[in-house]
Write a structure and sequence with these properties.
By secondary structure, the chain is an alpha+beta fold. 18% of the residues lie in helices and 29% in strands. It contains two helices and eleven strands. It has a six-stranded antiparallel β-sheet with strand order 1-9-6-11-4-3. Helix 1 packs across helix 2. The longest helix has 19 residues. It is globular.
Length: 204
């Protein structure tokens, strides 16, 4: 019988999940803004989306717009994430570099990808129907896929892929290097997500 044991956990891959306050107000306005963008440009751009609509970057300059108000609302969550990571928080040097929307209609999905040249990335759920597609992350440590014996049970030491069911109004903030994708939308309605990247300007 083992009388002494200490499990030391290093190199975790954190995904922070927040529930945005007053999310119903933001979702109503954001949905209107996104639909307007989609109507004006129904082609969008192609990145990780397969069959979905990926918007061009949001216009965040108008301080009275719903998207700018949403940007300001998410600041407290971004700041909290930075503190959680143990990084030095310098508000005036912390910035959202780009924000966009993705509409996944039934059968649409997003392939595995990362967000280069950013410290953090985020995903906010404007519309998240049941079976709309899990947010899936992959273990970025290549050794986890290299060589391993048969598993008796899955845990944080051997997991290679993890999927999250997300609800409307929830915000995920995670390392931009973390490989992630979105499963196929198997619902009968659209799944609408806003994503954005966060950088910290370390230049003097």
């Amino acid at each position: 019988m083992i009388s002494s044991k200490e499990t030391l956990k290093f190199f975790p891959q954190p995904v922070l999940k927040y529930k945005v306050e007053n999310f119903s107000y933001f979702n109503e306005g954001l949905l209107e803004y996104i639909k307007k963008m989609n109507k004006e440009d129904n082609v969008g751009i192609t990145r990780s989306n397969r069959g979905g609509w990926h918007s061009k970057p949001f216009d965040l300059k108008d301080k009275n717009s719903i998207q700018h108000k949403f940007l300001m609302e998410t600041t407290k969550y971004v700041f909290d994430a930075i503190k959680t990571f143990g990084w030095k928080l310098i508000p005036e040097k912390t910035m959202v570099t780009e924000m966009w929307a993705i509409i996944n209609k039934p059968h649409d999905f997003n392939v595995i990808h990362t967000h280069p040249n950013s410290y953090l990335s985020a995903a906010y759920y404007v519309k998240a129907p049941k079976n709309g597609g899990k947010f899936v992350i992959e273990n970025p440590l290549s050794v986890a896929r290299h060589s391993y014996p048969a598993l008796e049970k899955q845990n944080e030491f051997n997991i290679k892929v993890a999927g999250l069911d997300i609800k409307e109004g929830e915000l995920l903030i995670f390392p931009a290097y973390l490989p992630h994708k979105v499963e196929e939308n198997k619902a009968d309605e659209d799944r609408i997500v806003i994503s954005f990247n966060i950088n910290i300007n370390n230049f003097k």
